[in-house]
């Protein structure tokens, strides 16, 4: 198939990944290429040049409009709309069999767009007002919509999802996250270092539990980093930097427990399954899809309870590493995910008015 992969443009689709959405699009492009599909990545122009790249914007959003996400800046909105509108036009004229939409733009959801090219839209965020109506209005035979967990499905469609909507769990290549049968007794945390990821909660819980903790990730929220995280570093609490995938996997694999501390209803939690693949059980805050994804590989604490999260660290350390790894192999591998994507592409093409399925 000839596939247009339309990505989010806040950050480049390149390593080291700023977050899960960037990792999702990069691994999807790589995986589909490896399966023999022709993939064109519509993303920021400073994304990974290994892919056939058709830039939505010349450079990623945060470089041109730093710190303006969620501010309602009219100039940013116009900038994004112009880029995505032009990209959608090129996709419609480009002879694509299907478009996989991983953007947060409302424009690819319009029925005129999905009727032009069969479309699969993957939602990576909880419902919010700027997108909710467009998602619901975009349900159509020529459009399949996926969410990453049952919890996210209920959030987007509390009265029940239409048949065009389904759960598509994220997947990883276990070879990228090698299993290690023992750790060094320490804890690890990784992700975007922002308030809603709860980096400060991981530090507080590790201190209460008396365990060493290393943090990894991008310090994209400078104020939060300087005021809430950096002052807490020192002694057994350290920052290990923002690493590429292979380096991060090696660092995570050395630890004995992974801390997962969302302060919002996390739709999935890709970092958790990456750590689990390495063999780490998880001590996590029970929000969003955490329990659904982590399952028997984790110990959980209610939101806002520091003592319970510290206690969860001790309980998680007693969970066998092999069990965490095997849960990923059963449910969250790259092959399971790509099989599901290909099935969605075939399904939406059969349902499309053009009936293309070759």
From TrEMBL:
GO MF assignments: glycosyltransferase activity
Domain Glycosyl transferase family residues, every copy: 190-320
Keyword Transferase appears in the UniProt entry: yes
Top-level taxonomic group: Bacteria
Domain Glycosyltransferase subfamily 4-like N-terminal: 19-175
InterPro entries (UniProt xref): Glyco_trans_1, Glyco_trans_4-like_N
Matching Pfam families: Glyco_transf_4, Glycos_transf_1
UniProt KW keywords: Glycosyltransferase, Transferase
SUPFAM superfamilies: UDP-Glycosyltransferase/glycogen phosphorylase
Protein name: Phosphatidyl-myo-inositol mannosyltransferase
Organism: Methylobacterium bullatum
Species lineage: Bacteria, Pseudomonadati, Pseudomonadota, Alphaproteobacteria, Hyphomicrobiales
């Amino acid at each position: 198939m000839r596939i247009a992969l339309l990505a989010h443009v806040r950050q480049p689709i390149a390593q080291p990944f700023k977050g899960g959405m960037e990792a999702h699009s990069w691994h999807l492009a790589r995986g589909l290429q490896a399966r023999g599909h022709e993939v064109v990545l519509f993303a920021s122009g400073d994304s990974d040049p290994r892919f056939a790249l058709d830039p939505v914007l010349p450079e990623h959003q945060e470089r041109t409009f730093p710190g303006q996400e969620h501010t309602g800046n009219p100039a940013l909105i116009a900038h994004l709309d112009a880029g995505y509108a032009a990209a959608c036009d090129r996709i419609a004229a480009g002879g694509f069999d299907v478009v996989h939409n991983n953007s947060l733009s409302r424009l690819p959801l319009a029925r005129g767009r999905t009727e032009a090219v069969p479309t699969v839209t993957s939602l990576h965020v909880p419902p919010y007002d700027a997108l909710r109506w467009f998602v619901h209005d975009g349900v159509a035979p020529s459009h399949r919509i996926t969410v990453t967990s049952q919890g996210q499905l209920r959030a987007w469609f509390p009265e029940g999802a239409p048949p065009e909507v389904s759960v598509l769990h994220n997947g990883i290549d276990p070879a990228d996250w090698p299993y290690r049968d023992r750790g060094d007794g320490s804890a690890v945390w990784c992700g975007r270092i922002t308030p809603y990821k709860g980096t400060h909660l991981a530090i507080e819980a590790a201190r209460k539990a008396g365990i060493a903790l290393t943090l990894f990730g991008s310090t994209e929220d400078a104020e939060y980093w300087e005021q809430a995280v950096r002052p807490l570093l020192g002694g057994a609490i350290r920052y290990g930097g923002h690493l590429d995938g292979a380096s991060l996997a090696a660092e995570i694999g050395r630890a004995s427990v992974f801390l997962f501390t969302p302060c919002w209803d996390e739709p999935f939690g890709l970092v958790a399954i990456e750590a689990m693949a390495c063999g780490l059980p998880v001590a996590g805050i029970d929000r969003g899809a955490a329990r659904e994804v982590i399952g028997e590989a984790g110990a959980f604490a209610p939101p806002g309870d520091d003592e319970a999260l510290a206690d969860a660290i001790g309980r998680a350390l007693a969970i066998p590493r092999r069990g965490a790894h095997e849960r990923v192999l059963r449910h969250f591998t790259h092959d399971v995910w790509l099989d599901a994507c290909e099935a969605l592409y075939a399904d939406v093409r059969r349902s499309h008015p053009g009936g293309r399925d070759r």
